[in-house]
Please model this.
Amino acid sequence: WAPTIRFNDESDFINTPVTDDELSGYKVDRSTTECTDFSTVATLPLGTTKYTELDTGTAYYYRITSFNQYFQSTSPIVLASLGDQIAFTGDCVSNVRLPEDMQNILLDPGGDPTKHIRIKRETVFSENKGKVFNTVTFLPMRNGNELVENFVLPRPVPVKLRYDATPDGTPIAVQGLGVAGVSGGQTKGVATAQNGGYAPAATVAGLTPAAGAEAHLGIFWNNGKEYVKQYGTVNTAEETVEIKTPNLGSFQVRGVFRESGVTFDVSNITTRVITPNGDGRNDVTIMLFDNPTGEVVEGEIMDLRGMHVAAMVPGPQPNTLQWDGKMNGAVVTSGVYVYQVKADGKTFNGTFVVVR
Model:
């Protein structure tokens, strides 16, 4: 793990070398469940960044928490037995899960503390109202307190959000006062591990909204301008909604009308005007589908005469198709092009404009 370098309020340690009211050492906690019933199996001195124990065959979950003479850190990463890194929020359910091969995304291979990234997590209770049942942020922070703009993971990873439901299945808003270390300020004397802990579940008070049943829940993601539909898989037993996405940031569980089978909404097209000039802006158009049964979705691009131009290819996350404004590797001429997407016995048509 990376050494702790800041207090929980993201301010720097004051003294060099650090004093015991800033950082005393680390504790290794272990459990057979993902986010509860942890017990400390080792207490390690300041300067330690590695712990090894004999493999007994039990699939343990681990977390590293830093501590000083007053407090213990409150938001560590949980490490699964096969290496997954799980960043839980305070409800101990909502999380983002990174596989083992993405470890170097959070920990700089060269050990430079200014390049380590932590995932800052917060439940934003103030936004939970109306058709919004839970709002959670997963923010990539470099050097402990610098937000990494336009952060994208190499491939989609699971993001799971909790919601609550009444006995008849009606969703209710997740509300509460928050938990120290999850939402709100920190006591100045609290040290926090760079990849570190969970906090107890926040209290929940039901607020019945005018929304549909659990089947009509979906995840929305804030793209920096607005929240856009990401759909997702609803698990009524867990009371969660899960998507796979390469994006971090702000997510919400919302009520949204969802038909059976594959459905498509034109609002889920990233751009209708493609400018394939390689500047990284609108070079590609991506369309997202609601595809709860995993149907095969195929897309074709044609010119206005109905001649084949290109096949759409899978996009950056599940249930997406994309086109880069090219035919056989070369950028097409400027003009209007027709897309035709087929899935589940349905056909969706529309147009794109290519501007060179």
Q: What stands out?
A: Confidence is low (pLDDT under 50) at residues 177-212.
